[in-house]
Specification:
heterodimer; A: Rossmann fold; 2 domains; six-stranded mixed sheet; three-stranded antiparallel sheet; globular; B: globular
Chain lengths: 251, 294
């Protein structure tokens, strides 16, 4: 991949379910080295967009490129370099945390030590426990360990803070920074606005399937027309309210 | 092969499931039928006949129940999101699922075959090796066809309940296949079908052997040398025994010697089983490669 190709790029990306347009003409470019936060209320289309990027879903119109390649045509090339923590996932009952991580490592042909990865996400005490018995927070930690296998160049984290206690939230933030320092691009969706502000270089706000704002946190504050002391929540409410008032039109 | 870890995991899933080992036990219990009819039909090869009897009815039920959830289950729980995010093409995922489940079921069914063989040898002594090897290979083909069907079901149907309903429907239709085909044949041609004295109709006999278990019976009956029929070997033997009437469709009983159409040759059952392997796999691939997986 050449440096000038965005890690993720969408062009007019659209996903329609019957009468509902979950993602509407989305143009997005996430550059290498970014920590990009994808914000939006529930049902805004964040997970659908991630599904399109990862080829869980196929676009109704428009294109997606990841590392400059088409996810439908080159899933192997893309997924070898990508780690994924999906939203609303299930684990394999009767299999330990170690077996989950080992399975990903074997498929990716990575030589990661499952114990080291599980220790890194705070699951050192539950390595050989049945993942089917895990709490939501432990599931989330395990999924993060699976995402970290193979030192990915791109981390896609869909609502990574779900179910985590404050220690877990902090650990995720630290890992995002550590991976980003090693050169990974991080694309994550969240509605935990405070965390987005703490983690992200850039933020995109999705509302009713459309990208209504895109830029640094400061740029978004300017776009929302509120003062520099305003927290991310104020920025988000202002941006999405304005768009609702305008009938969903991007401004 | 980047999908081999997936295949290994699927194989382990089968080997650690109670259902697979219950199937093994049931095949042995159902298959071991030391009857005089069976002995009179094929003598010491009755040991091989036990395999046909055990596999014929129970394998379709067991294999479909152990495969129809292979993809739907992952969709329902959401674990498919991890699978799709791995460096695998969708076709590789299907291959891993199919090959892994086939290997796991092959091992458990293999144990059942070994047990039946051991019991048979203990009870009746040695048997002919060539038909034994042939019947084992035919069982492998039938297993592959059923795994292929189960994976297709898992790919094509979106809900577990619907898929389970289709499995039950399939079992019922194949169980009463002779009756279904006879009724349809009568409606289409106007010729009544009396299973005690079936008409010498090539198309009728051909359709009767189109199910996976029907083709399996035709092939194994041929290997056992009892006759050309989709029914089980004891029924075929009884039907061809002078002075006996039974509701079985046997080519030699319906057609004058040498007048049966070429497409009723038992060896063509290999082609039918191969079709049951290939067509569902191709359809699964087409369905799974098109559209959303969630």
């Amino acid at each position: 991949m050449s440096d000038d190709v965005p890690v993720i790029e969408t062009d007019g990306l659209t996903k329609q379910y019957g009468d509902v347009r979950a993602v509407d003409s989305l143009d997005l470019a996430i550059e290498a080295g970014d920590v990009y936060g994808f914000l939006g209320p529930n049902g805004a289309g964040k997970s659908t967009t991630i599904g399109l990027v990862l080829d869980y879903l196929r676009p109704t119109a428009g294109t997606v490129r990841v590392f400059g390649a088409d996810p439908q045509r080159d899933p192997i090339g893309i997924h070898e370099r990508t780690g994924v923590l999906p939203d609303r996932f299930g684990l394999y009952e009767g299999r330990s945390a170690r077996q989950h991580v080992s399975f990903v490592a074997e498929t990716k042909r990575a030589d990661d030590d499952p114990e080291a990865l599980l220790d890194r996400v705070g699951l050192a005490d539950a390595i050989d426990d049945d993942a089917g018995e895990f709490s939501k927070g432990m599931e989330q930690r395990l999924a993060l360990a699976m995402a970290l296998v193979g030192d990915p160049d791109l981390l896609v984290l869909d609502e990574p803070f779900t179910g985590l206690d404050p220690h877990g939230v902090r650990r995720v933030r630290e890992i995002v920074h550590e991976e980003n320092d090693k050169g990974a691009t991080v694309f994550f969706s969240s509605h935990v606005l405070g965390q987005v502000e703490l983690v992200c270089d850039r933020v995109g706000v999705l509302h009713q399937g459309r990208l209504v704002a895109d830029g640094t946190v400061d740029e978004l504050r300017d776009a929302a027309g509120i003062d520099d002391d305003a927290v991310m929540e104020d920025v988000f409410v202002e941006l999405t309210d304005v768009r609702i008032d305008a009938g969903g039109e991007s401004q | 092969m980047q999908w081999s870890p997936l295949a290994r995991r699927e194989c382990r899933t089968i080997l650690t499931s109670k259902g697979a080992w219950i199937l093994t036990a049931l095949i042995v219990l159902w298959g071991f039928r030391p009857t005089y009819t069976g002995w009179n039909a094929i003598g010491q090869n009755i040991t091989i006949g036990y395999i046909q009897t055990g596999v014929n009815v129970l394998l379709p039920i067991g294999v479909l129940l152990l495969t129809y959830q292979s993809l739907i289950g992952e969709r329902t729980t959401g674990s498919i999101k991890f699978l799709i995010a791995l460096p695998l093409k969708r076709t590789h995922i299907l291959l891993g699922k199919s090959v892994g489940r086939f290997a796991g079921l092959g091992a458990t069914v293999g144990v059942a075959v070994l047990l039946l063989t051991g019991i048979g040898v203990f009870e009746h002594g040695a048997f002919a090796i060539r038909p034994f090897v042939g019947v084992v290979l035919a069982t492998v083909l039938l297993l592959a066809a059923l795994v292929s069907l189960g994976v297709l079901l898992s790919t094509a149907v979106k809900s577990t309940v619907s898929a389970a309903g289709i499995v039950v429907g399939y079992i019922l239709v194949t169980l009463f296949w002779n009756t279904v085909v006879s009724k349809v044949y009568t409606v289409v041609t106007g010729v009544p079908v009396n299973p005690y004295d079936a008409p010498a109709s090539g198309p009728l006999f051909f359709v009767l052997r189109l199910t996976p278990d029907g083709a399996y019976n035709v092939l194994t009956n041929w290997l056992l040398g009892v006759g050309n029929s989709a029914d089980q070997f004891r029924a075929v033997y009884t039907k061809l025994k002078p002075g006996h009437g039974i509701n079985a469709f046997v080519v030699e009983a319906a057609f004058e010697s040498g007048t049966a159409p070429w497409y009723l040759h038992p060896v063509l059952s290999i082609g039918i089983l191969a079709g049951w392997i290939a067509v569902p796999l191709v359809l699964s691939r087409r369905i799974f490669n098109t559209g959303d997986v969630l």
